[in-house]
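thread: overnight batch results

M.L. [08:02]
morning all. the overnight job finished for the chain we discussed friday. pasting input first so we're all looking at the same thing
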Amino acid sequence: MKQICILGCGWLGSPLAKSLVEDGNSVKGSTTSPEKIQVLRKIGINPFKIKIMESAIEGEISLFLANADILIIDIPPKLRGKIKENFVETIKFLIPYIEEAQVRKLIFVSSTSVYADDNSTVTENSKPFPLTESGKQLLLTENILNENKNFKTTVIRFGGLIGDDRHPIHFLAGRKELENPFAPINLIHLKDCIGIIKAIINNDLFGETFNAVAPYHPFRVDFYTNKAVELQLPVPEFNYNNVTVGKTILSIKVEKNLGYIFQNISL
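M.L. [08:03]
and the structure it wrote out:
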């Protein structure tokens, strides 16, 4: 049995925690929502209300990290809305607490936004070149964690996250003038996200970087048109006047090093 701490029990973190508990692990999970404490407790998670900021932490972070074999950081940069954060500084502020707790293994949930949309085929050997602010902060954070010699960090760069209750078509249905009709999709299902994280833990593969995208890359126009028809939603309309930009992301190390077989490919 491992003691696993998940910092950020949101859309991915909560079902991941539940699955790890079902496998016999002891799991601590954090949330910023008081209402979610009881929800986490009901599914067998030891819950903590913790909020990480650039220069302060609310909650019992030392108790949360105590005796942790593995820490999973799954808190995305908050760069939308009126309140924005410097995500890099937020993680920097957290690191001394990780060191003090002597956590030796860490998984950082990152994103394929660290790669540029330059119409290339991307592997883990491709040089990241983020164009968005979110991608830039994630890459800087990856580097800071990887450079720390007090723990081994495995970075997972997930593609677009989808699940039974979450699919981009619900946001795109009926919209007009969508860009990049011939860009390939790079998505991954929640069940595969959980499966890959568990495979990393079970294979003890720390100090690595993995792309995590389903091996299924139809054009955006084809994929979203077909999905809208399948779900009887308004078909989105695309703009064909501008040059399409995108990328095809391959998850070579997930399949080769982990031996992981994707369960949800057609999405």
